[in-house]
Amino acid sequence: MESNRQKKVAGVLQKDLADVLQNALRDSGHRGIIVSVSKVKVPTDLSIAKVYISVFPNAEASKMLEELNVVKSKIRHEISQRTRHQLRRMPELQFYIDDSLEYMEGIDRSLKGIDNPIEDPTLLEKRKKS
Predict the structure, then answer these.
(1) What is the pTM of this model?
(2) Cβ of 52: how many Cβ atoms within 10 Å?
(3) Continuous segment of H or E residues that includes residue 53
């Protein structure tokens, strides 16, 4: 269970990260890509911030994650400047792809009968977690 402090820090980081990422995307010349910060998780010691991002179109997600990891220190510095009066110490940032929308879409397709594993047994191999 998250404490109120964790929720506040996660909320502040989520808001500021979304703003910084949108500005960085615009400045770097990426067109037709939308990046949103869907969730930020912070442990009780506030040392790490797990940032979950959603990228549209989904095909650009892995490339965007690589680019974010390259400029992670610049993003952390920018966020620390914005939150210097709210946070004593800036947590380390770890970026992850949020694939929950893709997962929900797969469930929706299965329920509608579009991807039926009974009719097409090859779909079962694709669904196994690795």
Answers:
(1) 0.78
(2) 18
(3) strand 48-56
